[in-house]
Amino acid sequence: MANKPLFFFLSFILFSCHSVENNPGLQSVTVNGVRLHYRIDGTGAPLILIHGSIVDYRYWQEQVPVLSRHFQVITYSRRYNYPNDNKLEPNHSAIVEAGDLLGLMNALKIEKANILGHSYGGYTALWFATDHPERVKKLILAEPPLNAGFRICPTEGAGLKNS
């Protein structure tokens, strides 16, 4: 059956989407002109979890119960992921996403946090940490898409420095 992969993809999309109303504890804040949905679970030192490209804040739902025993866990959906409905903007990048993370932390009055990013979320976390190291307690990266282009910085002073 030639359409089998398409069927499974569409089934995944249909069955993985839940309405915002069915997600108690989900809140939203506007930063940098975009609305970001987030959850806060647990108490303790802040731990911000940043998901990868095609998922959303729910990506971490299996880990949150365990992590929230020790941390105040903040999961959020990046600007173009469910349930956010922000208009697509030109020049989107991990640098823009890092600015959103800064805005979220400011809105939630988080001065310093442990930050865990997966995939593109790891790339976002890395940009954030290079621009705002004073706001990062610990940085955990899981499979960030690093490449030589990271050293070619679009803004002066951004990015990793060569040793």
What do you see in this structure?
With 163 residues, the protein is α/β, with parallel strands linked by helices. The protein has a single domain (23-151), classed as Rossmann fold (3-Layer(aba) Sandwich). The protein contains four helices and six strands, in the order H-E-E-E-H-E-H-E-H-E. The longest helix is centred in the middle third of the chain and has 14 residues, at 94-107. The N and C termini lie far apart (54 Å). Residues 6-19 have low confidence and may be disordered.
Radius of gyration, in Å, reads 16 Å
Per CATH, the class reads Alpha Beta
The low-pLDDT segments are 6-19
CATH topology: Rossmann fold
Helix content range of the residues, please? 25-40%
The helix/strand series, from N terminus to C terminus, equals: HEEEHEHEHE
User: What percentage of the residues does DSSP assign to strands (E)?
Assistant: 15-25%
CATH superfamily: Alpha/Beta hydrolase fold, catalytic domain
Q: Record the strand order, biggest sheet.
A: 1-2-4-3-5-6
